[in-house]
Design brief:
It is a single chain. By secondary structure, the chain is of the alpha+beta class. The protein is 43% helix and 17% strand. The protein is built from 8 helices and 9 strands. The strands form 3 sheets. The protein has a 4-stranded antiparallel beta sheet with strand order 1-2-3-6, with helices on both faces. Strands 7-8-9 form a 3-stranded antiparallel beta sheet, covered by helices on one side. Strands 4-5 form a two-stranded antiparallel ribbon.
């Protein structure tokens, strides 16, 4: 199988249930929307005779026991596959004969793309063009073997005769346009590559694993040679200077160092109160408040037998912890809003300096 996408075990099993021989599949691609344009998973694959579409909606994904279902507004494909017990329990399946596909195209919208197939019988003109193309290819191969060059004038006269014969009007066969699959822009590049390869296979052209069309999905870092984790961003995390990134990020907090120090200080105080609470509730209550011995305990002597004072102490510690948490949360919110605003200003300032060609060529 050509190196675009490899079947998951469950997708391969689901295709086999629908009678597809996965050993004959030439190429496959996975998309992140179902056949209705909702979040889900779709597999497109082709062999020499058919194009297959296996689609499942995220609403039908079966989660493993103990796993919580994600919000429907989020993309479930961002989750790990291990969270799902089954994705294709209620999958939809469709197949399209390659001989009936007259043309194919992709409609691109703001954030999604849709693959369309135009199905129908082959017209006489299309059949003649196909036969002509096949005949020319055979003649070229024969001429290469025999070392004979074809006379262009003879070829032109033959073509003119064939065109005159085919000038008669014919009734075009009925055509049907079918929407096959959707994808988000994150899978757009692979969808276009799949369609291009499908066209080549339909035309009888050979596609090899080292074809240049696959290079765009296996770009490596020129410095260390490792494959980029995200082929769209082309940022090598192995070569990125982590210290430099931290220093750049810290610059956004230069106006908020007092808040940053206050947050860390309150975290330490909260940790101290958390460690002190078990001692107050256990040791102080049992060994001091409830103890009627004559042993003198300096500062804590006030709490001996004084349950009301102990209750006020516990209440004060809880109120202090709550107050510290409130002030820390307000400080973090103010700081985060200010930092995010500075980041957004820097990002949009940098974007305004880019050319229109950048936005046309990048999603």
């Amino acid at each position: 199988m050509l190196p675009l996408d490899a079947f998951s075990q469950e997708a391969e099993s689901a295709l086999k249930k629908f009678g597809v021989n996965t050993a004959d599949i030439i190429i496959a691609v996975t998309l992140d929307l179902d056949d209705a344009g909702d979040f889900g998973e779709t597999w497109l694959c082709i062999d020499k005779d058919y194009l297959y579409c296996l689609s499942a909606s995220s609403k039908d994904f079966v989660l493993k026991k103990g796993k919580k279902k994600k919000n429907s507004a989020g993309n479930p494909n961002n989750s790990e596959d291990g969270e799902y017990e089954s994705k294709f329990a209620n999958a939809k399946f469709a197949s399209y004969a390659m001989s009936e596909i007259r043309t194919s195209y992709i409609d691109s919208f703001t954030s999604t793309n849709r693959l369309f197939l135009v199905l129908g019988e082959e017209s006489r003109k299309e059949r003649e063009e196909r036969e002509k193309r096949e005949r020319e290819e055979r003649e070229k191969e024969e001429n290469k073997k025999n070392g004979v060059k074809r006379d262009n004038k003879v070829a032109e006269s033959q073509n003119e005769e064939q065109e005159k014969e085919s000038e008669e009007e014919e009734i075009l066969p009925k055509r049907t346009t079918v929407g096959v699959a959707f994808s988000t822009n994150s899978r757009k590049q692979k969808l276009f590559a799949f369609l291009e390869i499908a066209r080549r296979i339909k035309d009888g052209r050979e596609v090899k694993e080292d074809d240049s069309i696959f290079e765009q999905f296996n770009v490596s870092c020129p410095k260390c040679g490792q494959r980029y984790r995200n082929q769209h961003n082309k940022v090598c995390m192995n070569c990125v200077d982590k210290g430099m990134l931290f220093a750049r990020l810290l610059k956004y907090f230069d106006r908020h160092m007092h808040r940053l120090i206050f947050v860390f200080a309150t975290l330490l105080v909260s940790a101290g109160i958390g460690l002190l609470s078990p001692l107050v509730h256990s040791w102080l209550f049992i060994n001091v408040v409830l103890d009627n011995s004559d042993e003198h305990i300096d500062v804590l002597e006030y709490f001996r037998g004084n349950i009301l004072a102990f209750v006020f102490l516990v209440l004060a510690l809880n109120l202090l912890g709550m107050a510290i948490g409130i002030f820390r949360a307000r400080s973090v919110n103010k700081m985060s809003i200010a930092v995010m605003q500075r980041m957004q200003i820097d990002i949009f300032s940098a974007m305004q300096k880019l050319s229109l060609a950048y936005f046309n060529n990048n999603q």
